[in-house]
Amino acid sequence: KSVEEFTQASQTGEKSFSCTECSKTFRKNSHLTRHMLTHTGEKPFSCTECSKSFRQIYHLKYHMLTHTQQKQRSSSGAAHHSSPPPE
């Protein structure tokens, strides 16, 4: 698409990227690419601490907080708890 067509599509909310598996449409190709992981089952982002895998890097970053909190509790002498910390 030309820049003009792309700008017009963005302003009108046109969804021009379609999933070949389920026909869901997206405004951005990056959103379609991320969506396709739901069909392939691929989880490209892995935790270096426990090898758990995630589809989105945001979820990996959030997960990594659990390891950081565990290390902080261990270094402060607090007992290790399997439940999440109170909010």
TrEMBL record:
Protease listed as a keyword: no
Compositionally biased intervals (Low complexity): 74-87
GO terms of molecular function: DNA-binding transcription factor activity, RNA polymerase II-specific; RNA polymerase II cis-regulatory region sequence-specific DNA binding; zinc ion binding
InterPro entries: Znf_C2H2_sf, Znf_C2H2_type
GO cellular component: nucleus
C2H2-type domain sequence ranges: 17-44, 45-72
Keywords: Metal-binding, Nucleus, Repeat, Zinc, Zinc-finger
Regions crossing the membrane: none
Compartments (UniProt record): Nucleus
Domain of life of the source: Eukaryota
Keyword Calcium on entry: no
SUPFAM superfamilies found in the cross-reference section: beta-beta-alpha zinc fingers
One Pfam family in the UniProt entry: zf-C2H2
Disordered: annotated segments: 66-87
Protein's name in the database: C2H2-type domain-containing protein
Originating organism: Oryzias melastigma
